[in-house]
């Protein structure tokens, strides 16, 4: 993709921003090799039924199916690396006094790229907990074997109460982690500029974040090759985040 010309308005607002929120979705990790959810061919929710994999009822009905699927995904993530979009977002924090990454992603690629302030609205693949008592379960940093799609795996038993350990992600029908959501709302309401990167902006309540920022006067910048549920951002950068984000930083701070 040829390097685009960025508008002087965008570059000026970016350089002048004192507080930035970077709101990300699965598309920011796509160039690392992690599938998105809604891609027409490779999307996870195109290939797998979320109702049998991503609800508390599904876990209770078939824990080995659900635990095995999330362990497959955790193994994929452990074998992937941050891409130029994650690195550019981490670089951006050195140009503004305050920057918060608010991700819907359950991978840890923002942190591995060096972003310091990251909150996970939909939990993490790397923070399982007991389904009964909520005690955290420490996962090993490495996968013992090649991840296999479709492999059933019994979840470990909680060391405190013996209950089944569940993935630390937010499932359909569950609330967002309250503290993370309140912090995201607070920062969206007082940021100067919000990036919405690699998200289809269809999953609520997370998709409200850019609207909150816009209502409070922030400049909204979308980075995505496709149109999304986010209406009329001030700047709509069409293309892959791994190309556009490094190019934007180079243009703003040559
Ligand atoms: P989606 O799969 O809904 O959307 C991914 C977006 O990334 C799409 O808009 C793509 O066009 C865009 N995209 C693809 N490649 C890209 C690239 N290289 N650069 C930039 N953008 C790219 O994923 P999310 O919006 O993250 O929730 O989905 C939101 C939530 O739905 C997820 O957190 C998950 C899912 O159900 C839970 O698991 C609770």
3D architecture notes:
The structure is a single chain. By secondary structure, the protein is α/β, with parallel strands linked by helices. It has two domains: 154 residues, 3-Layer(aba) Sandwich (Rossmann fold); 83 residues, SIR2/SIRT2 'Small Domain' (2-Layer Sandwich). The chain has eleven helices and eight strands. A six-stranded parallel beta sheet has the order 3-2-1-6-7-8, with helices on both faces. A two-stranded antiparallel ribbon has the order 4-5. The longest helix has 16 residues. The model has no long low-confidence stretch (mean pLDDT 94). It binds 2'-O-acetyl adenosine-5-diphosphoribose. 2'-O-acetyl adenosine-5-diphosphoribose (OAD) binds next to α2 and α11.
- What letter string, H or E per element, gives the SSE order? HEHHHHHHEHEEEHEHEEH
Kindly state the percentage of residues in helix: 25-40%
Q: Would you identify the CATH architecture of the largest domain?
A: 3-Layer(aba) Sandwich
Number of strands: 8
Largest sheet, in brief, is:
6 strands, parallel
Structural class by SSE content: alpha/beta
> Regarding CATH, which class of the largest domain?
Alpha Beta
The total number of structural domains is 2
CATH topology of the largest domain: Rossmann fold
- Trace the largest sheet across and list its strands: 3-2-1-6-7-8
CATH superfamily heading of the largest domain: TPP-binding domain
Number of helices: 11
Which regions contain 5 or more consecutive residues with pLDDT less than 50?
none
Radius of gyration based on Cα positions: 19 Å
Q: What's the average pLDDT?
A: 94
Write out the distinct hetero groups bound to the structure. Answer: 2'-O-acetyl adenosine-5-diphosphoribose
Strand content: 15-25%
Task: Measure the end-to-end span.
Answer: 20 Å
Shape: globular
